[in-house]
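Help: read this over?
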Amino acid sequence: MHPHPGPPLPLPLPACPIFRRRVLAWALGLLACASSLAPTAASPGHDDRRALAAREGGQILPLEVLITQVEARIPGRLLAAEVDDDDGIFVYELRWQLADGRRLEIELDARDGRWLKLKGARLETAFRRSPNATAPAAALGR
């Protein structure tokens, strides 16, 4: 006879806070993976198909071109990108990570690459300095 009839008791987590954080991070990661596989209520891929047709028709710029333009202005790397139809205008939404770990949200007009939105912490330090901005005044002829 077992000392505890019925369903097994859950295993107690060790008191170590690092272990608890790792277990929590693992569980949240598993939940995120499972939720990304779930179908959405909207018609999946509809914007993507229309955007692909617009790109092939030359109506919008390729994402690669706009990523190169962003890299020239903001050092960092692309984390994720998607295209959305915003009232008939295709918009690229980029999630960008700076070298110091900060993350930015960038929205670009897919037709011409115009910057529509930029969100993130301490934006004034995110951009690359132009060579003229760091040149001494004497070198500029002043």
Summary: The chain has four helices and four strands. Residues 46-123 form a domain with the Nuclear Transport Factor 2; Chain: A, fold (CATH 3.10.450.40).
